[in-house]
């Protein structure tokens, strides 16, 4: 991480915001200390005291309405600091939508946003001291930055000695075309889908092809050979139906809730696909469970 020298502020400036930080009020201090002013000091006070204490302490208020360092339109304070201080670090650019999504309840902006919110909320719940919480937040965002800078393409099951996906695919291209052995990319693809199906129900052929570095047309053409003679779309739908059956057997969720949890746009679509794969509607399946 490289510090951005900013002649507009003295080193060691005070920054002040409202108490009980969770997302922006932890992410912004991390960003300031790592890229604007390594000696910055932060003060947390009740909301109604921020401006008064800012004047008394000669501190810069942030992440409250009506000050310079705050939210603008759909952007959060973290975004404003990046823009204001011209922070061009690529890993910080990756973090921005994650922080924004967690801070504004827009978890669709980045797949990591909901996880960041959950961890941050849990930290705040467990740690009553705001300054101890800040230090834990620094550790959290250092870790997230390292992931963004070095580990985005690494899976949790991947060991350091394993080849990257591109290397695996290139090795496959060198194999004899007549070989019927399941190619490495197909094995990797199955692992990726299984890893993500519970948390990322919007898997796309284009996104997976980019991860594997395999042309989407080739992936689409070859997919069914290694995935139960199903097209990519049918295979993903089958996994969603398998998940729906699991939820029907183990939870008391309504059919509408299960349709949502398994990634279907509406219950009628869910019912149609469920019947296609099981031969009966979800309601009929559920009634059958009740009779057992």
UniProtKB/TrEMBL annotation:
<dbReference type="GO" id="GO:0043565">
    <property type="term" value="F:sequence-specific DNA binding"/>
</dbReference>
<dbReference type="InterPro" id="IPR018062">
    <property type="entry name" value="HTH_AraC-typ_CS"/>
</dbReference>
<dbReference type="InterPro" id="IPR018060">
    <property type="entry name" value="HTH_AraC"/>
</dbReference>
<dbReference type="InterPro" id="IPR018634">
    <property type="entry name" value="ChrB_C"/>
</dbReference>
<feature type="domain" description="HTH araC/xylS-type">
    <location>
        <begin position="187"/>
        <end position="288"/>
    </location>
</feature>
<dbReference type="InterPro" id="IPR009057">
    <property type="entry name" value="Homeodomain-like_sf"/>
</dbReference>
<keyword id="KW-0238">DNA-binding</keyword>
<dbReference type="Pfam" id="PF12833">
    <property type="entry name" value="HTH_18"/>
</dbReference>
<keyword id="KW-0804">Transcription</keyword>
<dbReference type="Pfam" id="PF09828">
    <property type="entry name" value="ChrB_C"/>
</dbReference>
<dbReference type="GO" id="GO:0003700">
    <property type="term" value="F:DNA-binding transcription factor activity"/>
</dbReference>
<dbReference type="InterPro" id="IPR020449">
    <property type="entry name" value="Tscrpt_reg_AraC-type_HTH"/>
</dbReference>
<protein>
    <recommendedName>
        <fullName>HTH araC/xylS-type domain-containing protein</fullName>
    </recommendedName>
</protein>
<keyword id="KW-0805">Transcription regulation</keyword>
């Amino acid at each position: 991480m490289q510090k951005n020298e900013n002649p507009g502020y003295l080193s060691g400036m005070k920054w002040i915001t409202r108490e009980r930080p969770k997302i922006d009020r932890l992410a912004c201090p991390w960003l300031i200390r790592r890229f604007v002013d390594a000696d910055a000091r932060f003060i947390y006070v009740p909301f109604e005291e921020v401006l008064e204490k800012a004047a008394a302490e000669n501190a810069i208020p942030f992440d409250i309405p009506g000050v310079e360092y705050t939210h603008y339109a759909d952007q959060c304070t973290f975004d404003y600091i990046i823009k204001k201080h011209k922070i061009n670090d690529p890993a910080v650019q990756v973090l921005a939508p994650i922080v924004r999504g967690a801070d504004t309840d827009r978890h669709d902006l980045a797949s990591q946003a909901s996880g960041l919110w959950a961890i941050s909320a849990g930290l705040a719940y467990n740690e009553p001291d705001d300054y101890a919480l800040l230090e834990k937040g620094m550790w959290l965002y250092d870790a997230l930055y390292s992931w963004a800078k070095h580990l985005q393409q690494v899976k949790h099951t991947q060991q350091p000695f394993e080849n990257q996906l591109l290397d695996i695919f290139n090795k496959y291209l060198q194999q004899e075309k007549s070989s019927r052995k399941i190619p490495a990319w197909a094995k990797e693809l199955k692992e990726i889908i299984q890893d993500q199906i519970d948390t990322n129900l919007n898997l796309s052929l284009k996104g997976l092809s980019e991860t594997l570095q395999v042309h989407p047309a080739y992936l689409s053409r070859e997919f069914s050979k290694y995935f139960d003679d199903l097209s990519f779309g049918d295979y993903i739908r089958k996994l969603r139906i398998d998940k729906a059956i699991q939820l029907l057997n183990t939870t008391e969720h309504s059919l509408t809730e299960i349709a949502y949890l398994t990634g279907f746009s509406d219950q009628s679509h869910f019912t149609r696909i469920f019947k296609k794969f099981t031969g009966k509607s979800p309601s009929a399946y559920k009634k059958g469970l009740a009779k057992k």
